[in-house]
Give the backbone structure.
Amino acid sequence: MHAADDRLNDGRAIRRVVLFDDAEIDVRAWPANVPAIAQVIGDRGLEFGPGITFLVGENGSGKSTLLEGIATAYGLPPEGGSSHGGRSTRPSESSLGEWLRVERSPDAPRWGFFLRAETMHGYYTYLDSLGGPGGGLHEMSHGESFNALLDERLNHPRYTAGLVCLDEPEAALSFASTLTWVASLHEVARRGTQVICATHSPILASVPGATILELGEWGIRRAEWADLDIVTHWRSYLSEPERYLRHLLA
């Protein structure tokens, strides 16, 4: 009994996402026919540990679709923003978020933030419309605005704990900025915030102590950083780019 109580009060914003019993799913159609999503459906959900979980995989592997479904099931704006505000201009998300229910630890904070790289301009416009601090992100470069969000929203003491969902944040980041994010995400997790991040970046995925889930034709599997395809391919290319280029440019 005490062990069960400990699990229920472990502070995770998301213990597990589970499938609603009455979810209407056509397993032959997208997104249910993506192997990773099909596995979540077949397993009736997916569990998440504390700290940081990285979702990695090729384009089309379902990592962004899965992340978006989790974020919307948690109650975050599908185009990005916080649980305190955001906006939606054109619905484009899958039905996955409607199929999933979030199991939370009872005392976990409800605050959350969803950074979705390709639609954050809408969130910036929303902040400008409010006036006051937090606006002005449109006047920054893409990378500068992401770094400002990191400092003022994701890694700020007033937002300790809760859930942060990140969809390919490296799209805006230089090498140096990516290293800053590695350090900051480590700090965010240390303070108790749960992070789920879809990424193509071997640098981001190297945060110590993170759980890595690799998505592909096999579905979803746990992986070690050194064994990831993105790590192997980057190492190989950077050590001998001509081996790739002579085939690509022939």
Q: What stands out?
A: The radius of gyration is 18 Å. Residues 50 and 116 are 21 Å apart (CA to CA). The longest strand covers residues 194-199.
